[in-house]
Fold this protein.
Amino acid sequence: MAAELQKYEDELAQVRELVSIDDPEMANEARAEQGRLEQTIAKLEASLTPLLVPRDPLFDRNAVTELRAGAGGDEAALFAADLFRMYTRFCERRGWRIDIMSLSEAALGGIKEVIFKVIGPSTYGELRWESGVHRV
């Protein structure tokens, strides 16, 4: 990809020289080519940027996840239980193991609070953006 980027940048430098030429037809074609090359270079740079960013050193660690029922009583506790089942199935499908650290159950099969550790490769890296308030 880097060699391809270098090739397009070289072509762009040549095209920029042609833009200032006296022949108006040639200059118009060079401007059109310049726009195309600039878009292509921008796309290549965007695809190369993630490859150049260093990897998060915590990416391969285990993740500790906490779910709590918010305001809403039994319905909030039922929703928290649904979320816990969702996370449990998600982790099982990925081959990760769940270790429940703390569990406080509510009436009707709901969960007031659950804290669990997800054990497996890249669990923190995959789950680190799972945060915030979820409402029904």
User: Anything to note?
Assistant: Residues 63-127 form a domain with the Alpha-Beta Plaits fold (CATH 3.30.70.1660). The chain has a mean pLDDT of 89. Strands lie at 63-68, 97-105, 111-119. DSSP finds four helices and three strands in the chain.
